[in-house]
Amino acid sequence: MKKKLQYGLFFVAIFFFFSCNNSKIDEKLNHQVNHELNKDCGEVHWTYNEDEHGPTNWKNLCDGFSACGEKSQSPINIITNEGIVDSNLLALEINYISTPVNIVNNGHTIQFNVSGNNTISISDKDYKLLQFHFHAKSEHTMNGNHYPIEVHFVNQYSSSDYSVIGVMFEEGEINELLTEFLPIFPESKGEYNSEKIIDLKKLFPNNLSYYNYNGSLTTPPCSEVVNWIVLKNTIEASNEQIEKFSKILNGNYRPIMPLNERKILMFNE
Ligand SMILES: [Zn+2]
User: Fold this and answer.
1) I need a labelling partner for 261 at 20 to 30 A (CA). Which of 65, 100, 226, 227 fits?
2) Residues with CB under 5 A from ligand 1 (ion)
3) Residues with catalytic roles
């Protein structure tokens, strides 16, 4: 009887030994598979909500999103009297020409894809405009305050060197460009091909004084590859336009990220 019990215990121990080991192997395999899958984050679902898909958890949604948890992230709060005037900075040169656009609602923003040779010149480097898109409320804040809308012009020099210009909307006069395009914005995920030629100058103030700092894309993968140019001066849109546009954009702004060791430079025209 005693012997039987001993044998019994022995087999139970063997069983547990192998089953534990098996689950460890499974875990390892699973991790490897996930790792493989997570290299391509294109289909990963992320939102601006306060849930597991929201901004505080972007960094955990996919290996390729890990930069979202790094130290030089955007947007930031700009404390306007702490900007440092830097004599090395040059006037912003915007060489945007009138261009046909393809308007996309990609589920995160309204984006205008542009073709043609639209460039900006910063520190003797020419960056090419790829697209511009909108956030409501603004992503950057000034002294803790949001503007109702911020437009981002995404310009590329190389795959690891971008410059994004942020322009704030303020409530005021009717904005001609919005008058033209608001009625045709795709309100849900979709595309609209416009034959209209767009005059990008209508989205810039006359005075191009700016704040400058190093940061990131404000959406996953949050890559820290952006030389940010945030204009000091605003453009205007009517209250009605802002309300209608904000409804479509549906709260697509990332919360403010810490400045950490970074400095905010300033160029005054
Ligand atoms: Zn943006």
Assistant:
1) 65
2) 152
3) 108
